[in-house]
Amino acid sequence: MPGQIRVLMLEDSEADAELIHEELRRAGLMPLIERVDSAEKFESAVVDFLPDVVLSEYSLAQADPQAAYDLVRRLRPTTPMIIVTGSLNGGGRALDFLRAGVDDLITKDNISRLSTSITDALELRRPLGKLTPRQVEVLRMVAEGHRTREIAIRLNLSIKTIESHRGEIMKRLGIHDLVTLVRYAMRLGLVRLAA
User: Fold this and answer.
1) Which of 10, 144, 162, 170 is deepest in the core (most CB within 10 A)?
2) What's the rounded Cα separation, in Å, for the pair 168 and 118?
3) pLDDT in tens, 158-173
4) Residue scoring higher pLDDT (95 or 174)
5) What whole-number distance in Å separates Cα of residue 158 and Cα of residue 139?
6) pTM
7) What is the C-alpha to C-alpha distance for residues 50 and 175, in angstroms, rounded to an integer?
8) Residue 193 CB neighbours (<10 A)
Protein backbone atom coordinates (compact mmCIF):
# COMPACT_ATOMS: atom_id res chain seq x y z
CA MET A 1 0.00 0.00 0.00
CA PRO A 2 1.29 3.46 -0.82
CA GLY A 3 1.66 6.09 1.94
CA GLN A 4 -0.24 9.32 1.62
CA ILE A 5 -1.60 9.81 -1.87
CA ARG A 6 -2.69 13.06 -3.48
CA VAL A 7 -6.16 12.55 -4.95
CA LEU A 8 -7.70 15.11 -7.27
CA MET A 9 -11.44 14.60 -7.41
CA LEU A 10 -13.56 16.07 -10.23
CA GLU A 11 -16.90 15.69 -8.48
CA ASP A 12 -19.85 18.07 -8.12
CA SER A 13 -21.54 16.23 -5.23
CA GLU A 14 -20.10 16.91 -1.80
CA ALA A 15 -21.91 13.84 -0.42
CA ASP A 16 -20.38 11.57 -3.09
CA ALA A 17 -16.94 13.09 -2.49
CA GLU A 18 -17.28 12.31 1.22
CA LEU A 19 -18.38 8.73 0.39
CA ILE A 20 -15.21 8.29 -1.71
CA HIS A 21 -13.02 9.89 0.97
CA GLU A 22 -14.45 7.60 3.67
CA GLU A 23 -13.93 4.53 1.50
CA LEU A 24 -10.28 5.40 0.87
CA ARG A 25 -9.66 5.94 4.60
CA ARG A 26 -11.51 2.72 5.46
CA ALA A 27 -9.29 0.83 3.00
CA GLY A 28 -6.16 2.10 4.74
CA LEU A 29 -5.10 4.69 2.18
CA MET A 30 -4.11 8.09 3.51
CA PRO A 31 -5.68 10.41 0.93
CA LEU A 32 -4.95 14.10 0.69
CA ILE A 33 -7.94 15.17 -1.37
CA GLU A 34 -8.55 18.23 -3.51
CA ARG A 35 -12.12 18.37 -4.84
CA VAL A 36 -13.09 20.58 -7.77
CA ASP A 37 -16.31 20.85 -9.73
CA SER A 38 -15.46 22.86 -12.87
CA ALA A 39 -13.07 22.68 -15.81
CA GLU A 40 -11.22 25.86 -14.79
CA LYS A 41 -10.62 24.69 -11.23
CA PHE A 42 -9.61 21.28 -12.51
CA GLU A 43 -6.89 22.60 -14.81
CA SER A 44 -5.49 24.75 -12.04
CA ALA A 45 -5.52 21.81 -9.59
CA VAL A 46 -3.73 19.49 -12.04
CA VAL A 47 -0.90 22.03 -12.25
CA ASP A 48 -0.81 23.26 -8.63
CA PHE A 49 -1.94 20.25 -6.57
CA LEU A 50 0.14 17.69 -8.55
CA PRO A 51 -2.15 14.69 -7.97
CA ASP A 52 -0.95 11.10 -7.76
CA VAL A 53 -4.34 9.96 -9.06
CA VAL A 54 -7.42 11.65 -10.56
CA LEU A 55 -10.96 10.48 -9.83
CA SER A 56 -13.76 11.85 -11.99
CA GLU A 57 -17.50 11.53 -12.20
CA TYR A 58 -18.49 11.31 -15.86
CA SER A 59 -21.91 12.97 -15.75
CA LEU A 60 -20.94 16.48 -14.71
CA ALA A 61 -22.71 19.67 -15.71
CA GLN A 62 -19.70 22.00 -15.28
CA ALA A 63 -16.91 19.87 -16.74
CA ASP A 64 -16.35 17.35 -19.51
CA PRO A 65 -14.52 14.27 -18.23
CA GLN A 66 -13.09 13.56 -21.69
CA ALA A 67 -11.53 17.03 -21.78
CA ALA A 68 -10.31 16.45 -18.21
CA TYR A 69 -8.71 13.16 -19.27
CA ASP A 70 -7.04 14.82 -22.26
CA LEU A 71 -5.70 17.56 -19.96
CA VAL A 72 -4.28 15.01 -17.50
CA ARG A 73 -2.61 13.11 -20.36
CA ARG A 74 -1.06 16.36 -21.64
CA LEU A 75 0.06 17.89 -18.32
CA ARG A 76 0.67 14.81 -16.13
CA PRO A 77 0.91 11.83 -18.47
CA THR A 78 2.02 9.43 -15.75
CA THR A 79 -0.98 10.17 -13.48
CA PRO A 80 -3.76 7.55 -13.57
CA MET A 81 -7.38 8.60 -13.99
CA ILE A 82 -10.28 6.53 -12.73
CA ILE A 83 -13.93 7.23 -13.48
CA VAL A 84 -16.13 6.92 -10.38
CA THR A 85 -19.78 7.22 -11.30
CA GLY A 86 -23.24 6.76 -9.87
CA SER A 87 -24.52 4.77 -12.83
CA LEU A 88 -23.49 3.41 -16.18
CA ASN A 89 -26.25 5.12 -18.14
CA GLY A 90 -24.77 5.60 -21.57
CA GLY A 91 -22.54 2.53 -21.28
CA GLY A 92 -21.12 3.29 -24.72
CA ARG A 93 -19.55 6.43 -23.32
CA ALA A 94 -18.00 4.40 -20.51
CA LEU A 95 -16.46 2.09 -23.10
CA ASP A 96 -15.10 5.14 -24.95
CA PHE A 97 -13.33 6.25 -21.77
CA LEU A 98 -11.77 2.84 -21.27
CA ARG A 99 -10.64 2.76 -24.90
CA ALA A 100 -9.10 6.22 -24.48
CA GLY A 101 -6.95 4.90 -21.65
CA VAL A 102 -8.80 5.65 -18.42
CA ASP A 103 -7.46 3.18 -15.89
CA ASP A 104 -10.75 1.91 -14.53
CA LEU A 105 -14.42 2.65 -14.18
CA ILE A 106 -15.97 2.14 -10.74
CA THR A 107 -19.64 2.54 -9.88
CA LYS A 108 -20.42 4.16 -6.55
CA ASP A 109 -22.49 1.16 -5.52
CA ASN A 110 -19.30 -0.92 -5.87
CA ILE A 111 -17.00 1.67 -4.28
CA SER A 112 -15.13 -0.98 -2.27
CA ARG A 113 -13.13 -1.74 -5.47
CA LEU A 114 -11.72 1.81 -5.58
CA SER A 115 -8.70 1.41 -3.29
CA THR A 116 -7.54 -1.70 -5.17
CA SER A 117 -8.01 0.09 -8.48
CA ILE A 118 -5.95 3.06 -7.28
CA THR A 119 -3.21 0.85 -5.85
CA ASP A 120 -3.02 -1.20 -9.07
CA ALA A 121 -2.89 1.91 -11.27
CA LEU A 122 -0.12 3.45 -9.18
CA GLU A 123 1.86 0.19 -9.17
CA LEU A 124 1.57 -0.13 -12.95
CA ARG A 125 2.98 3.39 -13.34
CA ARG A 126 5.71 3.10 -10.72
CA PRO A 127 8.40 2.27 -13.35
CA LEU A 128 7.63 5.55 -15.13
CA GLY A 129 9.13 7.34 -12.12
CA LYS A 130 12.52 6.20 -13.45
CA LEU A 131 12.01 8.23 -16.64
CA THR A 132 12.58 11.91 -17.25
CA PRO A 133 9.69 13.98 -18.67
CA ARG A 134 11.51 14.00 -22.04
CA GLN A 135 11.77 10.22 -21.98
CA VAL A 136 8.04 9.91 -21.25
CA GLU A 137 7.43 12.18 -24.25
CA VAL A 138 9.66 10.01 -26.46
CA LEU A 139 7.94 6.87 -25.15
CA ARG A 140 4.56 8.29 -26.07
CA MET A 141 5.70 9.24 -29.58
CA VAL A 142 7.32 5.83 -30.15
CA ALA A 143 4.10 4.14 -29.02
CA GLU A 144 2.07 6.37 -31.36
CA GLY A 145 4.10 4.90 -34.21
CA HIS A 146 6.33 7.84 -35.05
CA ARG A 147 9.65 7.00 -36.65
CA THR A 148 12.91 8.03 -35.01
CA ARG A 149 13.59 10.74 -37.61
CA GLU A 150 10.11 12.23 -37.16
CA ILE A 151 10.47 12.29 -33.36
CA ALA A 152 13.84 13.98 -33.70
CA ILE A 153 12.38 16.67 -35.96
CA ARG A 154 9.33 17.25 -33.73
CA LEU A 155 11.45 17.52 -30.58
CA ASN A 156 14.27 19.40 -32.28
CA LEU A 157 16.81 16.75 -31.25
CA SER A 158 19.27 14.60 -33.16
CA ILE A 159 18.39 11.10 -34.32
CA LYS A 160 21.23 9.81 -32.15
CA THR A 161 19.68 11.50 -29.07
CA ILE A 162 16.27 9.92 -29.78
CA GLU A 163 17.91 6.50 -30.21
CA SER A 164 19.74 7.05 -26.93
CA HIS A 165 16.48 8.02 -25.18
CA ARG A 166 14.70 4.95 -26.55
CA GLY A 167 17.49 2.66 -25.37
CA GLU A 168 17.54 4.25 -21.93
CA ILE A 169 13.73 4.02 -21.65
CA MET A 170 13.82 0.30 -22.41
CA LYS A 171 16.69 -0.23 -19.97
CA ARG A 172 14.98 1.69 -17.13
CA LEU A 173 11.65 -0.06 -17.70
CA GLY A 174 13.25 -3.49 -18.07
CA ILE A 175 11.63 -3.94 -21.48
CA HIS A 176 13.66 -5.61 -24.21
CA ASP A 177 11.61 -5.18 -27.38
CA LEU A 178 9.63 -2.46 -29.09
CA VAL A 179 6.33 -4.38 -29.18
CA THR A 180 6.31 -4.83 -25.40
CA LEU A 181 7.24 -1.16 -24.98
CA VAL A 182 4.29 -0.08 -27.13
CA ARG A 183 1.91 -2.43 -25.26
CA TYR A 184 3.06 -0.97 -21.95
CA ALA A 185 2.46 2.60 -23.17
CA MET A 186 -0.99 1.62 -24.45
CA ARG A 187 -1.86 -0.07 -21.18
CA LEU A 188 -0.99 3.16 -19.36
CA GLY A 189 -3.15 5.24 -21.67
CA LEU A 190 -0.18 7.19 -23.03
CA VAL A 191 -1.65 6.53 -26.47
CA ARG A 192 -5.27 6.17 -27.50
CA LEU A 193 -6.67 2.90 -28.74
CA ALA A 194 -8.52 3.12 -32.03
CA ALA A 195 -12.29 2.92 -31.71
Assistant:
1) 10
2) 28
3) 999 999 999 999 999 9
4) 174
5) 16
6) 0.82
7) 28
8) 10
